[in-house]
Amino acid sequence: VLQRSLLSILKSAVRGNVPKEPLIASQPTGPLGWFLEAHASQKLDSIVKHGTPELQQHCLNIIEKGFTVVSQAISRGLCDRIWRDFLLHVAGAGDESKFRDEDGLHSRLCNFHGVCMGMREAAFEPRITQILDTLFGVEACIYSSLTFEKSTQQFTHRDCPFFYTQPEDLFFGVWFALEDVMPYAGPLFYYEGGHMIDVDGKEIGRRNAGKHGDPLGECFDEYTKTIHQECEKNLKRRTLELKKGDAVIWHPRLPHGGSQIEKKAATRRSMVLHYIPVHIPLYGIGEFFLPQFNPIKPKTFNYLEHGERHFVQQGHPHFDVNY
Ligand SMILES: O=C(O)CCC(=O)C(=O)O
Ligand SMILES: [Fe+2]
Predict the structure, then answer these.
(1) DSSP assignment, residue 300?
(2) Is the peptide bond before 255 cis (omega within 30 degrees of 0)?
(3) CB of 112 within 8 A of CB of 8?
(4) d(Cα 74, Cα 265) in Å, to the nearest integer?
(5) Cα–Cα dist 156/137, whole Å
(6) Which residues surround ligand 2, an ion (CB under 5 A)?
(7) Mean pLDDT to the nearest integer, 277-283
(8) Could you read off the pLDDT of 127-167 as tens digits, one per residue?
(9) Strand order in the sheet with 256-258
(10) Is the pTM for the entire model greater than 0.85?
(11) Residue 60 and residue 58: Cα distance in Å, rounded?
């Protein structure tokens, strides 16, 4: 019996389990994506009726500031387990040396959560998923993930063009510190309130559509530079020096990036999980900026199960460069 059930689990994992029933969020919630509506914070009381004050506060932070920090979201032991799995993966990965710098530190590892159970345990920590389910109004599933050994040193940007959902902006990034983040190790930076800056990606798309060369690249550059300038003019850039086990959840439009590494060979072990609501399709920067050339087509994903939660089936984990 044990063998048969093991076999059926393996088979269903390979097939990809598409949930048949609409999935139900673990918290009583409002309509899909209600947190994006004007005056969402005023609806909080009625929507988070049965939630704890902590859950209320996290939701409010995301709506008003664009992010929230969940202190000690996961244990130090779980951080160590995930990192041990990362090192084992590196030892067995064929192409890892191409993504290693002179100090032996790797650039991003994509979708490690597919094979790392500890990473999924972290991702589905109830204190995190309660917040995401509540704000989405339906169950949040993992779409993809990145695991970092060092800061990406990425310029100010928003994630929403890369995670372009229909309806729009149904995305959360959750970033976990897997070690204490040192100030010289390129901590995450962000602009509080920057999620409210209005920049019209479609208008930028229309203006750049006819350009020769790489119109999409031009769109992204202009969009990003405009957001950066507005942030610098009106807001204060801050960094997050998180402790091992802390997590930060950001709004789909929060401008953020990775600070410069100021001490050679400084590690900044961390991971970011990308969540969307189950059964919601996701597109990319082509559809975000230039829908006239990249029309939205119907799309469905295969979902795998982790306990009662779901994650989109991705390929094998792979290393990639940091942009
Ligand atoms: O961790 C970093 O350095 C930046 C990460 C980031 O921007 C992201 O994952 O969306
Ligand atoms: Fe980002």
Answers:
(1) -
(2) no
(3) no
(4) 26
(5) 29
(6) 159
(7) 97
(8) 999 999 999 999 999 999 999 999 999 999 999 999 999 99
(9) 237-240, 188-191, 256-258
(10) yes
(11) 5
Report helix, strand or coil for 187: coil
Cα-to-centroid distance, 159 and ligand 2 (Å): 5
Secondary structure of residue 283 in the 3-state scheme: strand
d(C-alpha 82, C-alpha 116), whole Å: 7
pLDDT tens-digit map of 109-121 = 999 999 999 999 9
**pLDDT at residue 149, as a whole number:** 98
Instruction: Express each pLDDT in 19-74 by its tens digit.
Output: 444 444 455 467 899 999 999 999 998 998 878 999 999 999 999 999 999 999 99
Tokens 């959560």 correspond to what residue?
113
Q: Which residues line ligand 1 (CB under 6 A)?
A: 146, 148, 151-152, 154, 159, 173, 188, 256-258, 270, 272
Q: How far apart are CA 259 and CA 153, in angstroms?
A: 5
β-pairing, 318-319 vs 237-240, is unpaired
pLDDT for residue 14 is more than 70: no
pLDDT of the residue at 26: 52
Judged by its nearest atom, the ligand closest to the C-alpha of residue 188 is: 1
CB-CB contact of 195 with 160 (8 Å): no
CB 246 within 8 A of CB 72: yes
- CA distance readout (Å), 229 to 146, 194, 223, 257: 27, 11, 10, 14
Helix (H, G, I), strand (E, B) or coil at 309: strand
- C-alpha 278/C-alpha 252 separation (Å) is 16
Element (H, E) at 231: helix 215-234
Q: How many CB atoms lie within 10 A of CB 56?
A: 16
Question: What is the end-to-end Cα distance of the chain in Å, rounded?
Answer: 49
Residue located nearest, by CA, to atom 6 of ligand 1: 257
pLDDT reported for residue 322: 87
Quote the mean pLDDT of the chain: 92
CA-proximal residue: ligand 1, atom 10 (nearest): 159
